[in-house]
Inverse folding.
């Protein structure tokens, strides 16, 4: 399968995952979330990717997969720490919502699936998921969250995070290509 076709298929899968709750609740859309709901979605998405990375460190023997997973843990933890510090400064609490709940439910299913894989099968599935996940999250941040964030400091945090996560997407694409 060509890389473009794979990316398209993975993107469709990730977008479906991110939008599953939206389909159930047609009156809600990611663009309608307020800053505190957006903050919670981002925190949950980062936390999920950290969980995926810990799973990769536990199950993979591939040094490239380990390097990527360690990068995910470092970068997503740093962004979450910055987000929590900003929320504390603002005296605000993130708000759970349909999208963060959907992400949590879908992550559990995917972690259960990947936990049963070993060797190259795990490495490929992890890399494909990371690519799809970053494509979908980057699209969500760029097209639904950033245009609608009202607080300037929250917007700045998301803008900085977006640059990091676009680099992750490129790194994941290279990893998928290498594991073909």
């Amino acid at each position: 399968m060509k890389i473009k076709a794979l990316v398209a298929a993975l993107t469709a899968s990730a977008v479906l995952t991110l939008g599953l709750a939206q389909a159930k609740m047609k009156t809600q859309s990611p663009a309608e979330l307020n800053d505190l709901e957006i903050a919670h979605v981002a925190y949950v998405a980062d936390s999920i990717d950290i969980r995926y990375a810990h799973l990769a460190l536990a199950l993979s023997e591939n040094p490239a997969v380990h390097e990527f997973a360690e990068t995910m843990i470092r970068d997503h933890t740093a962004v979450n720490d910055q987000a929590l510090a900003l929320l504390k400064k603002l005296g605000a609490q993130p708000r759970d919502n349909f999208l963060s709940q959907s992400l949590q439910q879908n992550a559990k299913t995917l972690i259960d699936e990947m936990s049963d894989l070993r060797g190259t099968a795990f490495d490929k599935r992890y890399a494909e998921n990371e690519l799809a996940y970053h494509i979908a999250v980057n699209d969500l941040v760029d097209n639904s969250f950033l245009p609608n964030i009202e607080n300037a400091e929250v917007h700045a945090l998301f803008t900085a995070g977006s640059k990091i996560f676009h680099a992750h997407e490129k790194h994941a694409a290279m990893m998928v290509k290498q594991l073909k």
Q: What stands out?
A: Residues 1-13, 19-27 have pLDDT under 50 and may be disordered. The helical segments are 3-24, 35-59, 63-90, 98-115, 119-145, 152-178.
